[in-house]
Amino acid sequence: MKHIEKYLTPVDKETLGLSENLHPQQLGSCTAFYSPAAAISLDEAEIGIIGIPESRNHYQNASCQLAPDEIRRLFYQLYNWKKAVKIVDFGNFVIGETIEDSYIAIAELTAHLLQHNIIPVVLGGSNDLAYALYSAYVTLEQVVNMVAVDSRFDLGSEESPIKANAYLDKIVMQQPNFLLNYANIGYQSYLVASESSELMRQLFFETYRVGMMRKNMEEIEPIVRNADLLTIDMAAVRRADAPGSPHSTVSGFYGEEICQVAQFAGMSDKLTMFGIFEFDPMQDYNSQTAQLVSHILWYFVEGYLHRAGDTLFKNKTAYTQHSITVSDTTQDLIFYCSKQTNRWWMVVPVVNLSKNMERFYFLPCTLKEFEMACENKIPERWWRTYHKLNR
């Protein structure tokens, strides 16, 4: 713990009303709270909660720095799950002298937790903190797939500084670059400039309108299953359900739907970091948004408790393999289906011309995409991924 103590301030349980009158099964009674006096082994933790009260690069949402403790206040009143899970609340991050200092320290802190196989669950703070979380993977020199649940793309320009609504370009332009794929779930077309949509297309990034996703929420699952890092901007939730998000609109995901996305994220064996940003307690009504965020966290952990381990492909006999001949391809499309969960993957060949060898990328997909291949149609996500990996 000594390596990370300098970054953290323990949770004040008494101020949050967690010091007494809690039921033994309420999360405030079941969570281990870091303090300099308490000996907590990182090797025993599975999920680590970190509040980051940082909003200096906010976009019209300075008070989101107040969010972490307000979320905790309601989250720890919820009841635990049927299965045990080792959660440690590491407290709040001590912000740096400059915002750049904070980014560097956040990356080091979360990278340290990742090295101990702990999933950092980050409570922001402003949305630019997603840049710092991505930087943790850069620190570890680990390729990362990133999924953002957001009503906008948060693209800036090469000249503009990092902001909560303009950080993605800095990730894309960074060298060396460890971003393998980026997917946006829940954008709203009337909030996005046409040139931004075109740039996302040129970069082979995945973008999904909120209306398209809401027609069939199950189609979100394979997109989320492919993520190492998933972040939620609360502006992706409609204002009626999240009044404490100043950039939300009358449209967006319903509260139950954003909880389902969080559950999908928790279920993914691949996902190693989760963040929630842009909640402003000062604009909340009757703690409604804080309550929703606490439910999002609860469903994320419930998903984690249902991880099946079928994303790692350690035992090929645990899957059924399907080889489909499709026109305009030089080889069959290969699909795998887990016998345990009935989840699907399609195999995308990766050709390394410099070494004259071929590798394979297992892309999570839906039954619908398999059926599309059976109808002699190449799934769009297969094409996009193939071109991205072989450009």
List the helices and strands and how they pair.
Elements: H1 2-5, E1 8-9, H2 27-30, E2 32-33, E3 47-51, H3 67-75, E4 87-93, H4 99-115, E5 119-123, H5 129-139, E6 144-149, H6 168-173, E7 179-187, H7 194-202, E8 206-209, H8 210-215, H9 220-225, E9 229-233, H10 255-267, E10 273-277, H11 288-304, E11 319-324, E12 333-338, E13 344-352, E14 357-365, H12 367-374, H13 380-389
Parallel strand pairs: 2-4, 3-4, 3-5, 5-10, 6-7, 6-9, 7-8, 9-10
Antiparallel strand pairs: 1-4, 11-12, 12-13, 13-14
Helix pairs in contact: 3-11, 4-5, 10-11
Q: What does this protein look like?
A:
This protein has 391 residues and is α/β, with parallel strands linked by helices. The chain has 13 helices and 14 strands. The strands form 2 sheets. Strands 1, 2, 3, 4, 5, 6, 7, 8, 9 and 10 form a 10-stranded mixed β-sheet that branches. It has a 4-stranded antiparallel β-sheet with strand order 11-12-13-14. Helix 3 (67-75) links the parallel strand 3 (47-51) and strand 4 (87-93).
Q: What are its keywords?
A:
single chain, 391 residues, alpha/beta, Arginase, Chain A, 4-stranded antiparallel beta sheet, 13 helices, 31% helix
In brief:
By secondary structure, the protein is of the alpha/beta class. The chain is built from 13 helices and 14 strands. It has 2 domains: 303 residues, Arginase, Chain A (3-Layer(aba) Sandwich), CATH 3.40.800.10; 74 residues, no CATH class.
